Each structure stands twice: as structure tokens, then as C-alpha cells.
Amino acid sequence: MYTDLLTAIDATDPSGRAIPDPATGEVIGHAPEQGVDDLDRAVDAATTAQPGWEALGHEERSRLLRAAADAVDAHAEDLAQLLTRETGKPLNGPNARMEVAMCGDWLRATAGFETPGETLVSEPGNAGDGGDTGDTGAHATLAYEPIGVVGAIGPWNWPLMITVWQVAAALRMGNTAVVKPSEYTPLSVLSLVHVLNQALPDGVLHVVSGGRDVGARLSGHPGIGKIMFTGSIPTGRAIAAAGAGTLKRLTLELGGNDPAIILDDCDPAAIAEDLFWGAFINTGQTCAAVKRVYATDAVYDDLCAALAEIAAAVPMGPGTDEDNVLGPLQNPAQFRIVADLVDAARDAGARILTGGDPAGGPGNFYPATIVSDVASDNPLVVEEQFGPALPIVRVRDADEAVALANSLDVGLGASVWSADRDRALEVARRVRAGTVWINGHAKPDPRIPFGGIKQSGYGLEFGAEGLKAVAVPKVYNG
């Protein structure tokens, strides 16, 4: 039972901060009230534990990460049930059970990556003769060694998966870690860390649930060598400023507003399902989801109709109902953002093909909404809505689509859709984004590096590049 997890993390004490179910408003638990002093103690403990964790070596640390993955698997259903109650995301579809399963998969994948490092120069020397000692040659290697303590600040939309993305690589490379979850979803992350620590040595992984004061202290703490952050652009800027005093290393994965470009040789009926889920995964609450579609004239009308048909039929409701695959928005503030953007688009003359009219009642439910005939500079297009409302902009050709896709100051992900892969790749090369998917969208893979450009942040996660990002390069020369 997920209630056992709540007991284990002291989330049943009513003196803590009440955490509501976004689908019903019912209080599901109480987050322990922790503050800056708790964070300082966690950083001190992580600092003390780090040398011993580093000394275990890559092979043993990888074994322990696999054991942590086994612990996640053993508690998978309880974690998924709690995740559903706290975030609102349904159990099924690309939602809670999938997120928990990906935690285990990511830990195992990270444990299995080859340790980064390389030989830079290896040239034999000259042995010399007589009294001449000769030339020993040139030898240099590049290694990646631990930073020390890594701070991980996570969001509320994928709280478990992104926490694992942040800490798995950090731990694998010999760092210890301190996690600060979102104030909206602390219970899931506290429970995940509790489960992971059933396999990890004492002191290696800590979590501190608190407010902005805790996040601010973590960002500037002199004992933290690196910050991993996923979240909004304004918060990312604040973290960068707070870390400047100690020149912290940073990985910032910030807002996206990802474009999808639909070329004129596509079959709208064939791509509509994949495009829909590229946009509406986690009810649109995903940084790298499709947020704006640029469709060429030849396919525009048919694509709009196909997406509207899917949106109208996809079941939305409480995540604990096994039949639902779309849930509520996680918090009322996000509901208001989506509703205001859709209302503004409607007022400006855009057509609401389906949705756009929340029913009211309990829960933060906003219906899956498809918006057509919307201007390219409408706020619903140029601002990241982060919810279940998708604007579709009509364009003349690929050139106009690329220009509009590149016109914003963000560049996390993008996608190009075409029946001709070579043509799609040619267009993709002109799109400014950290990742451009071809005939798909928002498909993370632990082997493939991921990160943004422009205001979407900097630094890479995942794969060998992700391991390097949570380590310091060191050259051995001679």
C-alpha cells in the first residue's frame, strides 16, 4: 500500500504541509516541514560520505545502482499509486506506471555505461644509448573524476523520473547527492529516495523537502559542487546567479515550447496518433512535448480534423481509474495559465475544434483542446502553455515553418514529420534546438544525450556525455 510509504517518510503527521490530490482536492498526506538547517545537515552528511562512496569504484557503485533499481521494482505499484494521487497523472498510458518503470530502467542503463575516459597521446620514446637516458615519449590520458556533492532540484511534472535522471549519473560517477523536490510533489520524491536508500549505503543520497528558502540555500551552498535543475527559465536564471559566487557547475534543463513541423508529403491520418501523444503526454505537462504545430497547406485541414477526433475521444478523469489516460493539471495555477491562453486565442479569432470548455467541479481538469486558425504570434503559440491545449498554425512551406520554429528564444526539442526521411533531415538541420526528432517527439532514451540551447538551458544529460557532465575532467600527462 502506498500509505505504508507515507508512514515511512513521516507524511501522516498533520502538522506538516497538506498535499492535495489534483483530481479531487482530497488531502493525501502531509509533507514534513524542513528548512535550511536540515539542508545544511544533509550537505554535511553527504560530504562526509563522499570519499567512501568514491573509493568503492565504478563496478561496485554500478552494482549498487542495479540493486536500487531492484528496490524500485519491488515497490513499483505503491510508488505508482502515490504518484497518481500526488500528480494526478493516470496509472496507465504514458503516465505513472510507465514513469516508475523508467526509473528502474534508467538506473540499470546508467550502471551499464562504459566509464568515460580516453588516451589522448601515446608515443613511444627513444631508449638512448650509453649514458643517455633517452626520451620517454609522450603519454597523456583524460579521466573523469567526482565533483563531490551534487544538488538536484526537480520539477512537479515527472518528479520520480527526473530525480533519477539527475542522481543516477551523479552517483555512478562517485558523487553523493542532495535532492530538493518541488513543493507540489514532495511525497513521491521522499518515497522514492526512501526506497533507493534501501540499497544504497548510508549518507550517499539525501532528500530535503522544503520551500524556496531551501532551494536558494542549495543553489548557493559552498558545499555543493554542481547543481542539476529542471524547471522554469526564471528559476534557472536565479539558480545560475546564486551559484556564481562559488562558480558551481550547472546543468539547466529549462522551458521548451517545442515546435513540430509537418511537411506536405505526410499522411495526416498516419501520423496523428503519434503527434497527439507527442503533445499530450502527461496531459501536456512535459518540457519536451510538442507545444506548437506548423502544418503546411496541403495537410493542414486533414491534420486538424484527425487531431481533434483523437482529442475528443481520449478518456480523461481521475488517474486511479484504470480506463483514463489523461488526468488533471497538477495545480490550480497551471490550470489558470492554460485556460487564460485558450480564452485569449478564442477572443482573437482562433477556432476551438474540440475542448476549451472546462466542466468545473472538483479537480484541475482542463479538456484536451485543439486550436486551429491561430495566428503565429498569438500568446498560445509563443508562450509555453504546459497543458492539454495544442495550437496548429497554417504555413505555406517548410521555409516559413522553420523561420517560425526558430523565432522564439527557446530551443529544447523539435520534430520534423515527413514521408521522406532524407527530406526531414534536411529541414531538421535548419531547426535550432538541442534535439530534433524525426517522425516522433519526446522520446527520451538513456543512451542518447539530451539538453537545450538558447533560453532552454545548457549542459547534457544521459549517456556517456551525461556521466561526463557530473564529473570533472582531469588530464594525466607523462
UniProtKB/TrEMBL annotation:
This is Aldehyde dehydrogenase family protein. Residues 20-472 form the Aldehyde dehydrogenase domain. Belongs to the aldehyde dehydrogenase family. Gene3D superfamilies: Aldehyde Dehydrogenase, Chain A, domain 1, Aldehyde Dehydrogenase, Chain A, domain 2. The keyword DNA-binding does not apply. It comes from the Bacteria. CDD domains: ALDH_AldA-AAD23400. InterPro entries: Ald_DH/histidinol_DH, Ald_DH_C, Ald_DH_CS_CYS, Ald_DH_CS_GLU, Ald_DH_N, Aldehyde_DH_dom, LUC3-like. The active site is at 253. Transmembrane segments: none annotated. GO terms for molecular function: oxidoreductase activity, acting on the aldehyde or oxo group of donors, NAD or NADP as acceptor. It comes from Corynebacterium kalidii. Keywords: Oxidoreductase. The lineage of its organism: Bacteria, Bacillati, Actinomycetota, Actinomycetes, Mycobacteriales. Pfam families: Aldedh (PF00171). The keyword Nucleotidyltransferase does not apply.
